[in-house]
Amino acid sequence: MWTLDTPLYINCLLTLNLKTGVTSNTRYETQLNESYRELAEYYGTAIVPTRVRKPQDKGLVERSVGFSTTWITAALRERKFFSFAEVRDAVAERLEFINTKSFQKRPGSRREAYISEEKEFMLPLPKHPYEPSVWKQQTVGNDYLISDGLNKYSVPFDLIGERVQIRLTKDLVEVYFKGSRMTSHKRLEKYSVQPVVKPEHMPSNHREYLSCNADEFKAWAETVGNSTEEVVKHFLTSGSIPEQGYKACVSLIKLGKRYGKKKLETACERVLAFSSTPSIRTITTLLKNSKESEKTVADSDNSNKYGITRGAAYWKKGGAGK
């Protein structure tokens, strides 16, 4: 093995106290690499690392290494190989010889000992081989998205601001929070401009515009007026993709329902007169100010409508000539 990178070493079952597999191994506590621990759990076994610089803890392994050197490496030292496949076949041939060779001090062979003493205790292999994974931690942003380093994926929106654990495999992205799996996504192989978002992860107000499309927004704007059409066009073209303007378009529709299409068109016309980059905030401010102005004028009219009216009792008492 030329490297001990996680994706490679995890495919081999190692009994050494390897640093990439054992994070910490003191006299009080053993802490395994998360991927190494997963591998053991997946195959129904346990990892018990040997002590550092204590070869006697793995004496059987050390003897097996010496035995293999004598009966395999030494036996093949004079042969020339021209491919890895040739080496593999030659080693398999020598291994078969070792396993069927009779013991010197006891009856039977290594294969017979395995079948009669060990095989019944072996667990069946899982249906699918273990898939190596990498773990990382992230804090969920206000957009309720996490990243695998290339693309973004959604998590339930109530995890905003929380620290989550992310498990990455070749084909899967899993998100955990406090030990529980919250969601999973099929991992994308290539970069995507749009994040992978599940509707159930979105707040209710965000789901409202999920089923909308640019043509529907444009068609609605035509029923309002030219200025509203210009504003909607700006929202749909100001971002990298039209979908980035959907939220603003939905907000504009809500303003139309609240204040009426005529007032909305007037507000859009006013904002376009002094800005080439209209925003929902500016349009909302104009509509609110317009409503307050109308209320002020109405209150003023009501206060002066009967300003010079005198009641009958006033005139019976002599009125102004009294």
TrEMBL record:
<feature type="domain" description="Transposase for insertion sequence element IS21-like C-terminal">
    <location>
        <begin position="125"/>
        <end position="190"/>
    </location>
</feature>
<protein>
    <recommendedName>
        <fullName>Transposase for insertion sequence element IS21-like C-terminal domain-containing protein</fullName>
    </recommendedName>
</protein>
<dbReference type="Pfam" id="PF22483">
    <property type="entry name" value="Mu-transpos_C_2"/>
</dbReference>
<dbReference type="InterPro" id="IPR012337">
    <property type="entry name" value="RNaseH-like_sf"/>
</dbReference>
<dbReference type="InterPro" id="IPR054353">
    <property type="entry name" value="IstA-like_C"/>
</dbReference>
